[in-house]
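Regression test attached.
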Amino acid sequence: MIAASVALARRALRNALRRPQFLAPLVLFPTLFLAVNVGGLERTTSLQGFPQVDGFLDFQLAAAITQSLLLGGVSAGIAAALDIEGGFFDRLVASPTPRLAIVLGRVLAASVIAAIQVVYFLVLGLVFGASIQGGALGVLSVLAIGIVAGTGFGALGMMIALRTRNASTVQGIFPLVFVILFISSAFFPRELLSAPADVLAAYNPLSYIAEGMRQPIAFDNAIGPVLEGLAAAAGVTVVAIGLSVLALRGRLREA
Amino acid sequence: MSGDLRTIRALMGRGLNEILRVPGGAIPGVLAPTIFMLGLSAAFGKAAALPNFTADDFRTFIVPVGMLQGAGFTGAATGVNLARDIEQGWFDRLMLAPARRSVLLAGVVASACLRCLLPATFLLVVAFSLGVDWPGVGALALGALLIMGLAAAAACYATVLALRFRTQQAAPLMQVGTFVAILFTTAYVPRELLSDWLRAIADLNPVTHVLEGVRQGFIGDVTWAQTWPALVALAGLVGLFGALAVRGMRRQGR
Amino acid sequence: MQYPGPIAAIEVIGLERRFKGAVKAVAGIDLEVAAGEVYGFLGPNGAGKTTTVRMLVTLLRPTGGQALVAGFDVATQPADVRRRIGVALQEAALDPLMTGSELIELQATLHGIAPRTVRARGAELIERVGLSQAAGRRVGTYSGGMRRRLDLAMALIHEPEVLFLDEPTTGLDPTSRLTLWEEVRRLRDEGTTVFLTTQYLEEADQLADRLGIIAAGRIVATGTPAALKAEVGRPHLDLVLAPGTDLRRAHEVVTRFGDHRPVADGCHLSIEIARGAGDIAPILRALDDADVAVAELELRQPTLDDVFLAKTGEHLEGSGNPHSEAAAELV
């Protein structure tokens, strides 16, 4: 089963890398949004209650990574839906490929792309004057949380694709990505959020994922937030893979 | 009614037809600016507490940005739809019409002008029900006029790209262009509070004037001093991208 | 009393189209289509048919030569040309969200005609192409044949002088094909000039008053179907020999009666005969005398595929002609 998963993951990756026009928006939009946020809201670090940071870019970097990873999930979902629309999926199901491998292949590809996304934003941050307070260990923490979260978002995308079987519907959930992200503490300190985000953020795993990556970038290697971030990311991943497998079973039963 | 006007009206009708017959397809575009407005004010609402912030409430300040975004999305969508029409061959039918190319372009662009009022209306209804101050009928009318102009400029820009690349895969390019043009302005905070590099860009970006023109009624009174730069900026944008789009239409088949 | 001279509906001199960094898709063609005739433009896929049509209907600028359609230059007077032509392109691009009658009205408007002035004509055209029942339905629900027929009705709404049909029946089922053929014949009877491209021999044979055969961007033959067929040869007799027959001996016998034609395999013989059916009996008698057993025989008139073969050295693929398909398989 591992061999099948890896083979499917390689195919998914190859397809993604061969169509850079689909991959580029994953980092392009969060990068532009990051630039606007930093350029427009730099002064907010002086607000009462804003934690002590070197700059707003340091603070925002984790938000951009989280946003990019979510878009990666949408794009994995679109790719899966295109597979379903194009008939590749049916061919897989008709073959002796293990069911779990069909999900895992797509999800593993999302992990690899997630690693690329994290590295891209860390390098971008360093180039434009951010610092990574946690050093090499901090980078590893960010990578760990980012990869696990990206895997989970990929599985979520896969689940939605299996339920809707339609690429443009998956594309339509794009604005939803922003809704979920805005009601988390990804962009702004939890204490400074306005209602109802201030309350909802505490229950939003994205808050913990973003804060877990922010801690080593903007502050220090305090273990608490990092573990919380990892736990939230792992939770999303396990639940999402479970839901994907259920969705796949459901689809097979109908067929 | 002259033939040109009839042609423009018929093409507008076709553009609107799409919304009426596939309402599901239009929903994300209609909702997006509202979601963005709500999200931004939930996340960054406390920024209004900064010294020298020119509005009491961040939402009031950000609503005009949402109106512009609706126009930008609509314009980009016009380009994406045109690219689809090129891919599917419908555009050939358009080009086979004896009408002047500028008339055909006007028909395509005019539907964007009307469509952009839909996301703006939805946004305003939500905003007012959440307590954003009523800016007055005059300010709203001016706002509507300005975003229709911006939608026209964005539609022309996206049309240039659609004619150049002839595929829907150019969609992100169309969207990124309008996204950048609208947000690299005084979108989030007043000019004085922008970081230096963004202030430099915003000063050069003509869309800043359009935004300030729409925003003036929400955060104060409508004045001629804030209105004419918006009109001039729009005239320039529509003139430039309109000319490029007409040129693109004329050069089809070369 | 003075009669106006015959006016050519389409006049093409040295027309060329070169795409960026590629060979010439159309490498200098000349053709003339008289008003009121159906001109068939026959050639295989990729021969340059569509490129030529797109130039003639002003969608593509020629890179050389000149083309006049309805008396106007496609390069310098495109709007005048567009007013006088009707076009049904290969894809039959129709907005799936609109109904048949809405599309007819839009088409009229695009041609500068107030829809209300053509409402009666629109209804008549829809009736004529057999879509009255479906006119109020969205085009998305139409079959391929219905779309082509609607496309044809749209192309006719502004009463064009010249009608261009680019592969109007490609991909259609046989019944839909026949319906379209009937419609083209009716248009000819009404005096419309029709420029029709096709890759189907039978279609060209059935519909065209005159033909141009295009291969690799050049016109290799023009004329009426009958003249073209007469030009390549006389009727010929195809023989299939019984298994185990001495092929060489059979050759010797039939050569006395006419010229050999290329044969496809070891048990086929094909000879040209001068007098048609009257030659068959002597040939059979001679073969019988020589102990050559014949399993099957067929007297064949020359086809357009024979014309194509003679002019280009190749069969026209996908022509729907069993002879050429069998030959293509064996190549």
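Expected vs. actual: identical. Residues 86 and 92 of chain B are 7 Å apart (CA to CA).
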